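TOPIC: backbone geometry
CONTENTS: sequence, structure tokens:
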Amino acid sequence: MDNVAWSNKRIGVRLEHSKQVNVMQTRNDESPVSSRRLTHVRWRIRGLLLAIAISMAGLGASEVTLPPSSEVAALFSRIGNGGFEEGTETPEFWSRHPGKDEGRNRHSRDTSTAFSGQASGRIDWFDEISGPNKAALQWNRYSLPLTDRGSLLVGGFVRTNGVPGARLGVHFYAEERKHLGFEKTPARTRNDDAWTPFVGELPIPDGTTNMGVALYSKEGGTTWYDDVVVLGVPRARAAVGTPNVDGTLTDPCWRAAALPGSFVQQDGSALAEGGTRSWVCCDSGQLYLAFDCVKATGASRGSGDISEGIVLLLDPGQTFVASYRITVSPDGQYTATRAEDDAWAPKLQVATTRGLKGWSAEIAVPFEALDLSLATGDLWGLNVVRHDASRQEVTTWSLGGVSNPRRFGSVTLETDMGDVLRASAQRAAVELGSSRRALLAEIEKVGVSAEDSPSTFELLGAAKAAADGLRKSGLGKPGTEPDRLALREKAAEAREALALARRTASQSLFPSPAVPQRNGFTLAIVPSLQKVRRDGVVQGGLLADAIRLDAAQDESESVQLVVVPADRALSGVSVSVSPLTNGEDTIEVSPYRVEYVETGPTTRYSQAYVGWWPDVLLPPAPFNVPAGRKQPIWLRVDVPPGAVPGVYRGNVRVEHAGDAVTVPMELRVRPFRLPRPGTLPCAFGLYASVLAEWYFGKKPYSSVMPIETFVRWCEFMGDYRLTPKNIAREYQQRGKGADGSETLDLSALQGTVGRLAPDYFPPNSFCVARLPCPKEVREGTTKQDPRTWVASLERQTAEFARLGLPRQAYIYGIDEPITEAYPFVRSVYELVRQAAPDYPLLQTVNHDPPEALVGCVDIWCPLTSRLDQDAEFYRARRAAGDAVWAYVCCSPKPPYANFLIDQPAIAHRVLFWQAWQHDVSGILYWCICWWRGMPGPTSGKPHFPDAPITIKDLPWTYGDNGVNGDGILIWPGPDMTPYPSVRLEIIRDGIEDYEYLAFLRQLISRAGVEERELEAQSAQRTLARARALLRVPPTISRTFTDYCTNPALIQERRSAIGEAIEELLELLKE
């Protein structure tokens, strides 16, 4: 008997060599959807072949792109009756909303049509819903327990008739029905009676204990759902034991160690055809895994061994980072890699045995090789993936977890980890001691003493005591497990004390003379990427004895100086800033007072807090600071294009009642200039009608706002490296000729577009014309004749060309059409192509990839979330020569980077690093001045800037979309003066980061041409370092939703890029 069969007999495991189920052939062949099932099978085959090719190439397997089969779904399902098979007139498990059908609206279990089986869930919505609850018609079920972490895999099949949209959504709740968030996946609504698949992944917020699942339909027709899935991940407990690692799987500890469930095809189409089983156990020092891999019947002993193997994926403590990957081949060879650590080379025990029917393996992974911390809990993420060469299939224990750590299975380790914990405690104590000494050195360097800040040194003492306590607690007796919670608390206590010590020290660097009398103030230097709360200790303060900045020529750079009252309120505080000088050369500094706006609560995304957030930048003027509050001063330096490189020095002086503090300020100007216009089109909306409406009420904007005023606002945007995307559509004069024909006068554009574009706007950054986009156009149901739109567009582009206006413009297509409208949209675009062939056509996308529009669109502009989900489509379009932009608006919501007021500042800036990372060549934003609903001068109500801004009073961006600050990046000052925002400043910094990278790439390209002349070793090293800096590291952005929170990481990377630019310029000069 071969070893594999013998080991299975000893363990008592019977492998089920199940015949592969052809899911599509087992469905109701007499239903009218059988032809579509064949199409579904073809999709499956095509996806499987692609996944095999990818896995054999060693690139990792693709994730789930179609709803899993019912057999697979049963392994992970968190809902019941997803196929609507159980029930009578209405399905079991599901509730309807509203609870009572009215008018022509109906919820029913439909037995006349189904994607599979005998029934589907049907929603008819034709009449408006009465009563106070206007939520969409839906099937739902709430109070479903949810113990999974990571994410849910959701999907199903939908059929629609006359419906503009459908989706599956999940509400997440903590204890006591606290709402943690809502996530959704759109369902493709084709409205052609075809069953269409949809699938998505929804992140589960921390602290979730239960959920509500809803299947939505929009008003207008009938929606059917079938084979709906909401899938968690498998869970297991590791057995406790120490096997002999010899590859035979004969040890008793394996008997209770099997991972539950079955392996499944990586795309979820079926259970694994091959017999693959896995076991996990542990002792106090190691994690053990065993695998039994049966080959296909008839496969020779050696067939397929080149690509045959097991991949073990580990995420200790379930941090949702794929930290460790171990690959084992049948001959016992293994590779081990760790994220972001090429030097990791652990010594593992690996043993395999081979037999006629397959092979088995055992692995021992020492805990000490995994660098576990005190924060590592008993719950680990784990997945096992088999590359089965004999069947040409890739299978996985946890569906969707081939490369996605949020979809790894959950394994609980219940063992005495005393030795590991003691080692972790000692490491943590050493690290904390080192951090404390480094912080103390920083504090002493900037001259803060115990007399200046007693609390700082008290906190340093508390940190030392906590670290010492941690060290002593970690010296427990061998064989006993220390109190893990107590160790974590001591480590957290030390870290918190160090953080507070840094904050109090930074806040005490610049005390006014009156501080000892509790009647003065202190100043703290804070980076621009830190939003300063107006109460509490100053976060993110810098330990520095002066403000220090560096910037290129024609670049802007900012920092904050925060005024902190010692004890009592301050009144009449003034700020003065001297010019920065370098010999006879000077550079001005622009100070602003940061004003706060009030945000509102939302269930659409997680908020750090609700209340007053810093945003408006007001002109300098004396100000008051209430006791217990903080007042940031924003300091911006705009480096002139021709500034002489070198160090410029000056100071900032803050005064109150004869009490004054002076802070030195230094600026290093780099010896290169950022190009203007830049390389990144940033097309942001600035609407003349909205500007005029806030200031003057409902009057034609051209009658109350001179074009020179609008130009001033456009120049303001240009200073921030933004293009008013609609500038060519403002101040047009349309009329009727004597014969009744339409007339068009664009001569005013010579004073707007003609004047500003050459100096400010990158190519193709504003629209020459825009197609209409009311709801019926976006849905493709309009009764209008598109030829009239195209005729108007043709007149406009012809007149634009006749006047010799700049040609760096695009045509804005039909905005955000739904998937079902794509054929109609294409028919319109084919007319546009004929009428205006010289202008690129831009298409915004917030639905499925618009493959039907390929060949008609030149600039694809998806939401960043769609770019994330549909990356392959946009990579293909880029490879074909099209441009790919991206946009944000009220979506996608956090954790995606966006421009919302209640997001961390770094989220606004990192979006531009992600643009570079994903080869995005333009950013679109719908509007920067959408003040509608905010009281203005003609409203008869108190208004800004004399009254505070409350975002929740805005009906459009907050009331309709539940977000804070969408569509508003500037604020209306007196006399039609734009006030910038903190977010606008940070957006410009992000654009300049992108331009740094673009300039570096240009220099590398030049150096590459001249590389033969750069043969010196030092020159080659310089070039290699520069090329490495073109990559956005995972420490800044790992994915669209996983990016850095530490401002220093971006500043350090940007500084390194600046140094590389200088080195390359010097090299090329030589």
Summary: The domain at 682-981 is CATH 3.20.20 (TIM Barrel).
